[in-house]
Amino acid sequence: MAQTGVLPMKRIEELLDTGSFVEIGSYISARNTDFNLSHKDTPKDGVYTGYGTIDSKLVYIYSQDAAVLGGSIGEMHAKKIVSLYDMAMKTGAPVIGLIDCAGLRLEESFDALDAFGQIYAAQTKASGVIPQIQAVFGLSGGGMALSNGLSDFVFMEQDKARVFVNSPNAIDNNSQDKNDYSSAKFQSEATALIDFIGNESEILSGIRELISILPANNEDDMSYIECNDDLNRVTPELEASIKDPAVAAKIISDSFYLLEVKKNFAKDMFTGFIRLNGNTVGVVANRRALFDEKGETLQEFDNVLSHQGADKAAEFINFCDAFNIPLLTLVDVKGYRATKCTEKRIPKAGARLTYAYANATVPKVSLIVGDAIGSASLSMNSKSIGADMVFAWENAKMGMMNASEAVKIMYSEEIDASDDAVATIEEKTREYENLQNSVVYAARRGYVDDIITVADTRKRILAAFEMLFTKKEENPYKKHGSF
Question: What is the CATH number of the domain that holds 102?
Fold first, then answer.
């Protein structure tokens, strides 16, 4: 049997600043006596809890011990985690959970079931107040998977970790060999539950990086660092990189800093963090291509809105708004994905994205880098739903719909009567594009604040956020939205 305490403490020590960990509740053990549990040794009831620092920032941490009853959650195990949340809420500091848990402790029955509920309640109360981060190193089974879902960011070890509500082998006509729904690959690519995957060392390093760019809570921003980049740096190279926002966002960011979130899920939509003049800024962008490290195209996408992409963006926007992180949106969308699956889900998903942007009160800046066509473009932080500033590149296109399609509808009789239908369509399309699919036309109507050059992108966006730094906006009083 594995020695208790070795792995959970090793992870804590590697994650936190050297010598900063202070343990809380070290004498607590299981108090249940059913099924001879009193004769089993349950040191710390299978979880180390305490506080420490990451780059001198206060964090609270719990690390589960799989060597104690499989790291399963019982009454006292949960009580330690809930107490940690209570202290984190009082002091306004993030909670980090290092997960290695077999799920509910069967020997404790209702007490264990209630324990899970108490953790859920604590997480719900903390949501939007303090950042919640979890990292799965072993099992995260049953109800623990829901706890992952209640967190803001989830890391997952790429080889050994398993996350599941129902084990793959418990699903009819399936097995882990056929479809491993519990794997890091599936959970990061198909479910959107997992934000980052990697080996154990990469995960712990990733948590440290994430803590460095996030505010400590929803009222106190400790994420600012000194900017050593040129605030007026020109960015002509953006034009060649804009199809992949992961590359473009790095160019815009201070010292080319970028942290992409949920990079394996809905790759047609980009979400991530950059820095502008030392401040953390969230970025949402439509993606046309995925580049490798050499700038070669690995994958291409239509610039349309999918339901997965909309859901991914909405969740990210809600987090940024809760923690007062400004939002930059790079827009290149011409409609919705036309598939049966998308048609089933896009009304709700698109509405969720629209609601998230319209409801957000943080500074919101948009840059139209390609297409902004039809109602899909409204959902991408348009002026109509509350963008504070909207910029457009000179070659961007805006309008109600694709020009050639609009012409075929508007001039159908004239096209039918023409001796050269193709020439007529081309002529009317050019006329329509110049009149109503033009960013100049949109700017004249006030839907675009300014048309900017590619080279001036960084300094204009940075200046807009500096201007909006003191923005104060409040939505009408309500308990919460019903969407």
Answer: 3.90.226.10
pLDDT category at 111 given cuts 50, 70, 90 is confident
The pTM assigned to this predicted structure is 0.92
Distances (CA, A) of 119 to 43, 126, 164, 473, 478: 20, 11, 18, 33, 27
pLDDT per residue as tens digits for the range 187-212 = 999 999 999 999 999 999 999 999 99
Measured CA to CA in angstroms, residue 181 lies from 102, 164, 185, 189, 308 at distances of 16, 7, 9, 11, 18
Would residue 22 count as lying in a domain? yes
What's the pLDDT tens digit per position in 238-249? 999 999 999 999
Same domain membership, residue 32 and residue 156 = yes
One-letter amino acid for residue 417 of the chain:
A
Residues 145 and 251 placed together within one structural domain of the fold: no
Read off the amino acid at residue 289.
Answer: A
Q: What residue numbers bound the domain in which 278 lies? A: 238-394+453-467
Q: CA angle at residue 133 from 130 to 135, to 5 degrees?
A: 165
